[in-house]
Amino acid sequence: MPRLVGRAKSTPPPAELAALDLAPRHLTLFALLVFDGPQTVSELAGRLGVAPTTVSLLVGDLSRKGVLERRPDERDRRRRIVDIVPASRPAIEEWLSPSARAWRAALDPLDPRQRRLVVETLKRFESQLAGPLDRVDDEDRFIPSG
């Protein structure tokens, strides 16, 4: 498993992003925003299993670099939503595409029952890594204890 994660995170960013000094930690944040859509800093922190201040610093850095934006939540103007700026989205999706293609190639030959088994197995693995007070919510988002 560590080799699998290491290989996925070693994919270099595309040329459009190369000058931005991005690291594997950015890849996980980008994946959440690409696949799950815009979110608040608190939501991202919960999903990443880190403190909101850590995500806020990361988002601030990426906002200054012109990759992410914070905007008011249309449903609650007191909240700020984090999203990828439209000009950066194609390059970020390109960076994520080798992992997406690999998952597709690995799962496509399986029938639905087998795919469910793989996903359930990975969820069990994740839950075993989580502390006894950690949990996963109804939308499969990791919620750390504390």
Automatic annotation (TrEMBL):
Taxon lineage: Bacteria, Bacillati, Actinomycetota, Actinomycetes, Micromonosporales
Pfam families assigned: MarR_2
Protein name: Winged helix-turn-helix transcriptional regulator
Listed PROSITE patterns: HTH_MARR_2 (PS50995)
Domain HTH marR-type: residue ranges: 1-127
Coiled coil segments of this chain: none
Transmembrane segments: none
SMART domains for this protein: HTH_MARR
